[in-house]
Amino acid sequence: MAICSPQALAKCIDHTLLRPEASADDIRRLCAEARAYGFASVCVQPVRVALAVQELENTGIAVGTVIGFPHGASGTAVKVYEVERAQEKGASEFDMVIDLGAVQDGDWQLVATEVQQVAKRVHATGGVLKVILECALLNADQKRHAAEVALEGGADYLKTSTGFASGGATIEDVRLLRQVAGERCKVKAAGGIRTWRAALAMLEAGADRIGCSASVMIMEEALQAFDQTAY
Q1: How many CB atoms lie within 10 A of CB 188?
Q2: 168 with 190: CB under 8 angstroms?
Q3: Fewer CB atoms near the end CB (10 Å): N or C, the chain?
Q4: Pick the catalytic residue: 143, 156, 188, 208?
Q5: Is 159 a catalytic residue?
Q6: Which residues contact 46 (CB under 8 A, 6 or more apart)?
């Protein structure tokens, strides 16, 4: 993806705050930053969805949350329930961690059923489902198979990482997911993306969205590179 301006870059960023100790004031600050820079969305823990929705009312900035986070081990019915509760509070984008243990077991039917059921619930209200594969914990064959299963199950995005595992997004993983996805769905790179150049590299490798907590620093670097001081 070619980025021709800081504004275009901002529209590719999910401004993220998932630290468990984040306070209400931290969430308000996150939302203020999203308004200031025009980010695509904010991504917050489920308990902070209502606050983020309130802070971003009438801005056009989406509120996203995480499901089965960060280990993917909460079970399909629990994940569906998490989606339902977040929908009630106003979330429209959902980043779900697949059952990583099932992937290691080769239980692809369980993974497929999980994605299908969560996707059905997300799409019932017009939401967007981003399926987190946690690539750092998978081998190449598992990544490809998990990506195919997620696509067939209804994923709108294939996402590299939670940011809470042993590694985050890599150029190689983004390219692999883009290759598998083709034009069938989008790709989100997340985990360890902290500079403007790193963000651009992920987009050039095939990502459509960047999930990061260093969004403001990235935008300040971008504005300086484009010799801009304000929008």
Answers
A1: 26
A2: yes
A3: C
A4: 188
A5: yes
A6: 65, 66, 67, 82, 85, 86, 89, 91
pTM over 0.90: yes
* 173 is an active site residue: no
Alpha-carbon gap, residue 31 to 41, rounded angstroms: 9
pLDDT 10s digits, 181-220: 999 999 999 999 999 999 999 999 999 999 999 999 999 9
Where are the strands (E) in the chain, listed by range? 13-17, 41-44, 62-67, 93-97, 128-132, 157-159, 186-190, 209-212
Residue pair 228/6 in contact by the 8 Å Cβ criterion: yes
CA 18 to chain CA centroid, nearest Å: 11
End-to-end CA distance of the chain: 22
| Rounded-to-integer distance, Cα 101 and Cα 200, Å | 32
β partners of residue 128: 93
Distances in Å between the Cα of 3 and the Cα atoms of 89, 150, 160, 185, 209 are: 33, 28, 21, 20, 12
Rounded Cα–Cα distance for residues 61 and 59 (Å): 5
Catalytic residue among 14, 79, 95, 173: 95
Q: DSSP for 95-120? A: EEE--HHHHHHT-HHHHHHHHHHHHH
Q: Is 95 an annotated catalytic residue?
A: yes
Kindly tell me if the per-residue pLDDT of 230 is higher than 60: no
Q: Evaluate whether 25 touches 199 at the Cβ level (below 8 Å).
A: no
Q: Catalytic: which of 156, 159, 173, 186?
A: 159
Tell me how many degrees the CA angle 118-120-122 measures, rounded to the nearest 5.
Answer: 70
